[in-house]
Write a sequence for this structure.
């Protein structure tokens, strides 16, 4: 992999051969990130001070387009080196706060125009969404939250970013392809089941009409789970909207309940949204999963990919 740095005045610098690097993908939140380390030349002092953008390249293909958050210069036994650290373009929306806004029958295009486009972000794909109720952006939330809440509420999906830095505001499509991972392919594997934070019940209350609706996570309750949340909605909420609010909260809480980490030799083997078929007989893991996060690195161990897999819902 090679690195390319872009300054705020649009100068482009190809970095020396990388000594080590890490590129992590989530597609959404936490946002994509990277860290690269390479030899340092004192002539880079001024460009580093102005560093704003970064490209990770593999065989001429963009593997991550991001922003520069931090640089560091070190002198030690390895000589003079510099390290660049940063995040993907979702950080632009996370770092900027929205003012309070209220929309009547808003469309996704309108939300993108007000909360995304001003930050220099282009779209690869958007869904045709229109709100069937008043959509409110609360004070103090990020531009990312304004976008994600709209997509979640009216489309049932989370937006995400491609590795090229383009926004994809549309549901994921399963193309039917599966990356097969068997015992012989892995360096390590682990499964984690975490009940902390999983909701057993959401009580949704419409304060204006003084009505409520209870949505229960029956599977989790049958396993002894007890974790209730109370959510207040704007006035004139329909029962359908209230039920969706409860189901949405429960679904979000259960997203991280079960996860599997698989460590493989090589880099850039899969990306968030890809489907993986596990056949790990030794630890009893099998079935189809979705790639939630993918961490790629180069170190003294060589190139390593760690995939975090979640159950398909």
């Amino acid at each position: 992999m090679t690195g390319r740095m872009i300054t705020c005045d649009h100068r482009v610098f190809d970095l020396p051969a990388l000594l080590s690097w890490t590129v992590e993908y989530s597609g959404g939140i936490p946002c994509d990130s990277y860290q690269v380390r390479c030899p340092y030349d004192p002539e880079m002092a001024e460009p580093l001070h102005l560093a704003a953008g970064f490209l990770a390249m593999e065989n001429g293909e963009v593997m991550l387009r991001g922003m520069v958050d931090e640089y560091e210069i070190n002198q030690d036994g390895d000589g003079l080196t510099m390290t660049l650290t940063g995040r993907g373009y979702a950080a632009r929306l996370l770092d900027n706060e929205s003012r309070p806004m209220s929309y009547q029958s808003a469309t996704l295009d309108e939300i993108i125009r007000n909360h995304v486009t001003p930050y220099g972000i282009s779209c690869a794909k958007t869904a045709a969404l229109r709100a069937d109720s008043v959509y409110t952006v609360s004070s103090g939330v990020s531009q990312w939250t304004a976008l994600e809440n709209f997509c979640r509420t009216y489309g049932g999906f989370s937006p995400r970013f491609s590795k090229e830095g383009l926004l994809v505001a549309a549901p994921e499509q399963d193309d039917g392809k599966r990356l097969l991972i068997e015992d012989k392919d892995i360096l390590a594997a682990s499964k984690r089941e975490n009940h902390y934070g999983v909701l057993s019940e959401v009580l949704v209350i419409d304060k204006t009409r003084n009505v409520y609706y209870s949505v229960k996570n029956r599977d989790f309750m049958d396993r002894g789970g007890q974790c209730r949340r109370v959510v207040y909605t704007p006035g004139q909420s329909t029962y359908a909207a209230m039920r969706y609010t409860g189901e949405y909260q429960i679904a979000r809480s259960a997203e991280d309940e079960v996860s599997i980490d698989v460590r493989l030799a090589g880099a850039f083997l899969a990306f968030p949204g890809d489907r993986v078929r596990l056949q790990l007989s030794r630890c009893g893991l099998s079935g189809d999963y979705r790639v939630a996060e993918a961490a790629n690195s180069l170190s003294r161990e060589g190139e390593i990919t760690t995939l975090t897999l979640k159950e398909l819902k």
Notes: The mean pLDDT is 91. The chain has six helices and 21 strands. Residues 239-254 form the longest helix (16 residues).
